[in-house]
């Protein structure tokens, strides 16, 4: 749904927020953000979510291969709108015409035009230490993103950032709970086998982790999966 009245946009944003929060994985949340961006932002034909971490580009979600190739070119050249936005902590960027970027991005600009990109727009989703996450929107037409499109894109990105944060936190909590459960089960196996207390059983897991140079969870998973205790003879 593109365009529409202000009241319709507000309703649509609320529906989008509910949809994003209903997704059960981080990746599904990211994929839905991209889909909503194309549906809602006037002029948007392609969209993607990019992570810039310590100078390395990672594509998290894309609508199609054009976006993936654009990300790959920026990563290869270490040049382009996402690098500039991250360096300057830009909340929003809008490039009306890729033909006018010769001075700014002498290498990325021509290759982006070869991909069929006429104009671009991007929004900060989050920054975390050395990480920069952005929602990038593309059109084949120069001048496709007008002021209203920027406002709609900003609203989409704002709702998306909240949903993304919630999804990431949920995934971290789920991983933490699962880890505790696995370690608890492994401790129980060691305690039962050697008739020792919890502290001594934990030392067995810790020693196995250090000797094998793997995470404690991996040792615990091995014990629960095979029943074998590291170092046992």
From TrEMBL:
Q: Which InterPro entries match?
A: ANTAR, CheY-like_superfamily, GAF, GAF-like_dom_sf, GAF_ANTAR, WH-like_DNA-bd_sf
Domain ANTAR positions: 163-224
User: Which superkingdom is the protein from?
Assistant: Bacteria
Entry keyword Transport = no
Q: Which of UniProt's keywords are assigned here? A: Kinase, Transcription, Transcription regulation, Transferase
Q: Where are the membrane-spanning stretches?
A: none
Please give the Gene Ontology molecular function terms for this protein. kinase activity; RNA binding
- A Pfam family of the record is GAF_2
Write down what this protein is called: Transcriptional regulator with GAF, ATPase, and Fis domain
UniProt source species: Saccharopolyspora gloriosae
């Amino acid at each position: 749904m593109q365009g529409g009245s202000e009241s319709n946009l507000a309703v649509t944003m609320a529906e989008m927020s509910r949809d994003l929060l209903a997704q059960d994985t981080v990746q599904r949340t990211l994929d839905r953000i991209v889909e909503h961006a194309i549906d809602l932002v006037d002029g948007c034909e392609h969209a993607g979510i990019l992570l810039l971490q310590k100078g390395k580009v990672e594509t998290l979600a894309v609508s199609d291969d054009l976006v993936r190739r654009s990300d790959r070119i920026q990563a290869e050249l270490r040049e382009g709108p996402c690098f500039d936005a991250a360096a300057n902590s830009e909340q929003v960027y809008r490039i009306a015409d890729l033909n006018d970027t010769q001075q700014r991005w002498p290498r990325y600009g021509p290759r982006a035009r070869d991909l069929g990109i006429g104009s671009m727009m991007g929004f900060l989703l989050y920054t975390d230490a050395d990480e920069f996450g952005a929602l990038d929107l593309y059109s084949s037409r120069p001048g496709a993103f007008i002021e209203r499109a920027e406002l709609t894109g900003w609203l989409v990105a704002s709702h998306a950032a909240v949903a993304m944060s919630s999804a990431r936190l949920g995934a971290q909590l789920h991983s933490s709970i699962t880890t505790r459960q696995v370690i608890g089960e492994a401790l129980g196996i060691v305690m039962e086998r050697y008739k020792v207390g919890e502290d001594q059983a934990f030392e067995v897991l810790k020693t196995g982790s250090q000797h094998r140079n793997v995470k404690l969870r991996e040792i615990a998973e091995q014990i629960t999966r095979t029943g074998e205790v590291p170092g046992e003879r």
